[in-house]
């Protein structure tokens, strides 16, 4: 009985050791030379994220093996994270991510990770009748926080693309490469900080004045509406042409259905009342 327990224990240790070696072997097949993250912010603060892992392979055989593994793993983010824990979504929690997919670009030698953040990266700071202010949410950079300090590795670059019409509200902290014309803010490692700030203002759309000429054009442009107009115009012409006869008929109807008392009788009643 003891011998059996020892055999099972040895087998478990061997399996664990094999798994560790396997993970190390997979990571040894490729080296991440650069990691870029592009975050396209929407007007509603949702975001489309593109992460690129640029890889270097020790040999052509390692590259071929990685391509085979990529085909086996498919587009699912979870499968890739299990395959190699270096590959994961650096922004947003699992319940905040949708439409995630991964593919390997052999031409760029880059692993492309695309996903949509439904919430979590920006939060509303203030709102008035004219504009809305947005700022980085707490925990947006949690993937890079160690012991309360945000650390971007030397091979990492994170770029925020602001929504169309957005205007940076205050100074970006820490210092970043900013292009106000392109609406672009980029942080590049190596970087350490205990505070990150990015805020911008979005103006609310102003209601457009009523364009009566466009309404008329749209109405006339519809064939059904044009037919209705022609019918109405025809009725107006017919009524105008026959207006004399219509007037006579109206007068006859009024006379026929109206009761008039003779004025003489009415006067007599008034005199009699005086007596």
Explain what the structure shows.
The protein has two domains: 30-203, no CATH class; 210-252. The protein is elongated, with a radius of gyration of 39 Å. It has helices at 2-28, 60-73, 77-83, 212-221, 223-241, 243-256, 263-274; strands at 31-41, 47-56, 97-105, 110-117, 122-127, 131-136, 145-146, 149-152, 156-161, 167-168, 177-179, 184-188, 191-193, 199-203. The protein has seven helices and 14 strands. The protein has a seven-stranded mixed sheet with strand order 3-4-2-1-9-12-11, with no helix packed on it. The termini are far apart. With 275 residues, it is of the alpha+beta class. Strand 3 (97-105) and strand 4 form a beta hairpin.
Descriptive labels:
four-stranded antiparallel β-sheet; elongated
């Amino acid at each position: 009985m003891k011998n059996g327990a020892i055999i099972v224990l040895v087998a478990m240790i061997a399996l664990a050791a094999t798994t560790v070696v396997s993970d190390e072997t997979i990571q040894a097949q490729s080296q991440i030379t650069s990691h870029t993250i592009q975050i396209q912010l929407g007007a509603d603060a949702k975001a489309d994220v593109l992460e690129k892992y640029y890889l270097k392979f020790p040999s052509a055989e390692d590259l071929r093996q990685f391509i085979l593994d990529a085909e086996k793993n498919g587009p699912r983010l979870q499968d890739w994270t299990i395959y190699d824990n270096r590959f994961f979504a650096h922004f947003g929690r699992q319940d905040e991510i949708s439409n995630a997919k991964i593919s390997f670009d052999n031409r760029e030698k880059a692993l492309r990770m695309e996903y949509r953040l439904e919430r979590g990266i920006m939060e509303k700071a203030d709102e008035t009748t004219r504009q809305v202010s947005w700022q980085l949410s707490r925990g947006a950079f949690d993937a890079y926080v160690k012991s309360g300090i945000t650390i971007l590795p030397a091979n990492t670059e994170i770029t925020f693309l602001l929504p169309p019409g957005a205007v940076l509200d205050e100074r970006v902290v820490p210092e970043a490469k900013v292009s106000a014309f392109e609406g672009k803010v980029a942080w590049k490692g190596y970087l350490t900080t205990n505070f990150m700030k990015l805020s911008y203002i979005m103006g609310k759309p102003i209601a457009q004045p009523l364009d009566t000429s466009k309404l008329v054009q749209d109405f006339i442009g519809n064939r059904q509406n044009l037919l209705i107009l022609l019918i109405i115009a025809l009725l107006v012409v017919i009524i105008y042409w026959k207006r004399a006869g219509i007037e006579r008929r109206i007068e006859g109807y009024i006379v026929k259905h109206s009761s008039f008392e003779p004025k003489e009788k009415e006067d007599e009643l008034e005199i009699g009342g005086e007596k």
